[in-house]
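User: Hey, quick favor. My workstation is busy. Could you predict this chain's structure for me?
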Amino acid sequence: MTSKKNKERAARAAMRKYKKRPNLLNAEKVEYIDYKDVNLLQRFMSDRSKLKARRMNGNDVQQQRDVATAVKNAREMALLPYTKRVASTRAPRRGEEDGYNERPSRGRPDADNALVDTYADVIEAEVAATETPAAEVAAPSEEA
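Assistant: No problem, here it is.
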């Protein structure tokens, strides 16, 4: 059973007039969609290399099928990428700048801290072994 609100919403949606998108293929009088025509195919793809919907392109059903097939063939032939990475920067979340929301490592929560401590001990030992004693540095040798 549908509620009264849903019936009203469906009636309003049925009354909406959608603006038909201009058909790019008909405007340019393209009869055959070639998979090698990368510039044409990229016009039917989003910035992440996904195919745009038929209602976004203005294509009819058969044209959209032909575009999809051509894009798939071009991807297979390495003329078009399957995906593109889009670099986006986001604002830091609350407390992220001061380390509030940092996640603990997998396994033991202090595993990372224990490793850092052991590495610090090893580095201190290596530095101590390679340093010359302060007495030798302060007093110049009298070999001359």
